[in-house]
């Protein structure tokens, strides 16, 4: 018999997870407290932008394998296994995670359960949450019914969510019994058969592995942004530097793109939540590290605003700025803690007339930053601009033609906030080009000590020079 699964919380994570479970052949019921979301999803419509998800949701709602409801009692009656995928945002007062939704779900589900089950947490939570959740469930279960809690953190990236869910690079099963492990192995049988590594851990390790992964990624980005800062001071090029680092297989090139830094619904809140949890647990080292990571990240946004002002002669008042991108990353309409919108707001505060274009995120951006001006086409943003800022590296924005763009603007100035544009092509088309960490050769502020007189090179043993060697020799003569 096919396993019947409920997925509680159908946002970016839950809607994707539910649709992919249906794709894998399970009968799935998605649950959300938002009636509007449930209504849209039930009609086969995905209320956010995620490549490939529309087809899955439309197909499986039509076939009846994927349904949605607002009713936890219906989920309790329907499913053998329940996934918790609700939001765990940053608390409105403070930096810790707000776990209200996770505990509300447990408290709301438990009294309706009529047969023993596994409740699998997928939301990102502070270490220790799963154990507390198990106690919350136990306290509300009907007599004779058992519910085991397992933790199965999710590592998908927005913009690649379907592919990451169907073909994960690793699976983490935080369990307290072999039975829960068996259930998880059945759910992920297709990926396991393909050879996906499975890490079976205790609950705490599973919870912590998730936030550690996000903390490491955030640290990598802030590390390269810190190097961008010193590169600007020293007249070095952070992109070339990242290429050098990236060729070391121990380091790797990914997540070393310097620019206006990381944002989104996860990395920023997850490092803050981990720092807060570390403080509670008396683990000061990770807390100190992550506070610095956060500071460096936010400073990158300010440095972009400073550079924009410097490019306009120090004063943005009355300048028209084309801000390209509003989403926190390309291929997404998510604007949660978006660096692009943060920079846009900073430029506006300095008096600039900012016109924002984004291929998918304008509506969401308008809802959180209604004071900005949004335009429906990139040309409308470029028209008469004194400065262009690339803030989100959407492929179509990275591929903009500098010649065509140059015909639309008032002044050919461009700030590449993502270090993704082809500098040579833009400068060849007459643009003043700047990017964070790629100083147009200022500034060694401290005097550099004079180099010691060279010791004479030993006379080389005579031998026939190769072609390259003789060219070098010619250059040196
Ligand atoms: N967005 C992503 O790429 C990933 C997110 N995560 C984690 O997954 C969790 C969810 O994140 P997102 O999907 O991005 O958030 P989201 O805000 O898009 O979705 C959360 C959903 O939960 C629903 N919800 C809230 N309280 C509820 C309740 N009491 N009962 C039923 N539904 C409720 C909301 O209406 C919303 O639809 C977070 O812990 C996040 O850190 C983990 C990996 C990837
Ligand atoms: O927990 C989560 O929700 C997810 O958070 C991130 O995924 P996501 O937020 O979708 O986006 P990323 O691709 O990680 O990018 C995050 C931010 O970092 C920025 N970034 C990324 C890479 C880089 O080199 N430089 C850089 O500034 C991006 O522009 C973006 O603003 C993680 O990559 C996922 O593994 C994780 O599951």
TrEMBL record:
Listed name of the protein: UDP-glucose 6-dehydrogenase
Annotated NAD(+) binding sites: 32, 37, 88, 124, 158, 269, 336
Pfam families membership: UDPG_MGDP_dh, UDPG_MGDP_dh_C, UDPG_MGDP_dh_N
Positions contributing to substrate binding: 155-158, 210, 255-259, 263, 329
Annotated pathway: Nucleotide-sugar biosynthesis; UDP-alpha-D-glucuronate biosynthesis; UDP-alpha-D-glucuronate from UDP-alpha-D-glucose: step 1/1
Region (Disordered) residue spans: 447-477
Swiss-Prot/TrEMBL keywords: NAD, Oxidoreductase
UniProt cross-references to InterPro entries, sorted A to Z: 6-PGluconate_DH-like_C_sf, NAD(P)-bd_dom_sf, UDP-Glc/GDP-Man, UDP-Glc/GDP-Man_DH_C, UDP-Glc/GDP-Man_DH_C_sf, UDP-Glc/GDP-Man_DH_dimer, UDP-Glc/GDP-Man_DH_N, UDPglc_DH_bac
């Amino acid at each position: 018999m096919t396993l019947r699964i409920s997925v509680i919380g159908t946002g970016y994570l839950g809607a994707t997870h539910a649709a992919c479970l249906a794709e894998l052949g399970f009968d799935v019921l998605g649950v959300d407290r938002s009636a509007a979301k449930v209504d849209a999803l039930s009609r086969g419509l995905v209320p956010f932008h995620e490549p490939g998800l529309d087809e899955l949701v439309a197909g499986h709602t039509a076939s009846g394998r994927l349904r949605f409801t607002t009713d936890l009692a219906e989920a309790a009656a329907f499913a053998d296994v329940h996934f918790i995928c609700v939001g765990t945002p940053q608390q409105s007062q403070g930096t810790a995670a707000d776990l209200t939704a996770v505990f509300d779900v447990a408290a709301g589900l438990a009294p309706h359960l009529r047969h023993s089950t596994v409740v699998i947490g997928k939301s990102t939570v502070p270490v220790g949450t799963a154990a507390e959740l198990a106690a919350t469930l136990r306290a509300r279960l009907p007599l004779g019914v058992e519910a085991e809690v397992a933790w199965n953190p999710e590592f998908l990236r927005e913009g690649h969510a379907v592919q990451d869910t169907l073909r994960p690079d690793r699976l983490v099963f935080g369990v307290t019994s072999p039975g829960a492990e068996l259930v998880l192995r059945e759910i992920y049988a297709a990926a396991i058969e393909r050879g996906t590594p499975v890490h079976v851990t205790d609950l705490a390790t599973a919870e912590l592995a998730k936030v550690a992964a996000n903390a490491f990624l955030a640290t990598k980005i802030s590390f390269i942004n810190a190097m961008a800062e010193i590169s600007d001071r020293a007249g070095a090029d952070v992109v070339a530097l990242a290429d050098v680092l990236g060729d070391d297989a121990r380091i790797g090139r990914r997540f070393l793109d310097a620019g206006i830094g990381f944002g989104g619904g996860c990395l920023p809140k997850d490092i803050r939540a981990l720092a807060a949890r570390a403080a509670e647990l008396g683990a000061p080292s990770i807390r100190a590290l992550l506070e610095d990571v956060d500071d460096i990240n936010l400073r990158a946004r300010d440095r972009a605003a400073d550079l924009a002002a410097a490019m306009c002669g120090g004063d943005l008042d009355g300048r028209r700025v084309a801000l390209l991108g509003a989403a926190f990353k390309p291929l997404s309409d998510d604007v949660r803690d978006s660096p692009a919108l943060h920079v846009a707001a900073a430029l506006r505060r300095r008096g600039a007339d900012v016109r924002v274009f984004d291929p998918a995120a304008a509506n969401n951006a308008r809802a959180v930053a209604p004071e900005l001006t949004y335009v429906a086409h990139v040309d409308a943003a470029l028209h008469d601009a004194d400065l262009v800022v690339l803030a989100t590296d959407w492929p179509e924005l990275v591929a903009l033609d500098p010649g065509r763009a140059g015909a639309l603007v008032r002044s050919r100035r461009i700030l590449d906030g993502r270090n993704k544009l082809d500098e040579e092509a833009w400068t060849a088309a007459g643009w003043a080009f700047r990017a964070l960490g790629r100083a147009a050769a200022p500034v060694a502020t401290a005097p550099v000590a004079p180099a010691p007189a060279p010791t004479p090179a030993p006379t080389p043993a005579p031998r026939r020079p190769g072609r390259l060697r003789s060219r070098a020799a010619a250059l040196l003569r």
